[in-house]
Amino acid sequence: MLQPTPSQPVGALLEPDSRPLAVRPLAEIWPFVLAALGSSALLFMMFQPWMRASGWDGVATVNAFGRISRTSSHLNLWAQSSPPGARIGGLWGILATIAIAIVVCAASQSIRRDSDVAAGITAGASAVVAVLVLVDVLNLDSKIPQVQASLSMAGNDLGPQLGLVLGVLRGKSSYPWPGESVPLHPAELTPWAFTAIAVAFASAAVAVSRSWRSALRGLAVVVGKLV
Questions:
Q1: Among positive and negative, which fits the CA dihedral 165, 166, 170, 172?
Q2: CA atoms of 67 and 86, how far apart (whole Å)
Q3: What is the pTM of this model?
């Protein structure tokens, strides 16, 4: 049983310890801080347009999850058949999101306390995020022709032609009149996609290069528990 001393009042024994918790030195935790911040920024980028395509009557954008936002008001107004739509899956974006969540959780644990397992998970998950982001971008790049075709006219249908003319009269589209050239921006990846690749690989490089020894020790601990 605790007994108060002359220099310590009885109430002091009942009061919670108000001393601040120890904080790990910044020199030890900065790789994990950068990994967590980079992953959080990457998650924000994944909801931005990673691909952009333009046509005579609208623009289409695609984010990392394959969601297409298309604006076309007159092209299919009287068309007998719509142009083929692009089919872009969101599997790689979903997997990258799961890996990002793992990075943030593991990095938070590594910031709070020295843990080889948490450091190893942070490094490994960061590398997985970088690979998934690269695969996602390459997948979107392969779908550029489909997205561009979704803004074009289907066959020799006269309906889209009349729709484009109406769009020009309303000032909503740029119809290629005979003898007049109308430049169109090609379908391409946006700076968001390339920035996401850079951030993902930079975060992975920092996490792996600064914690590879901890990652190996953490892997040994995990394997030892499984065996």
A1: negative
A2: 10
A3: 0.72
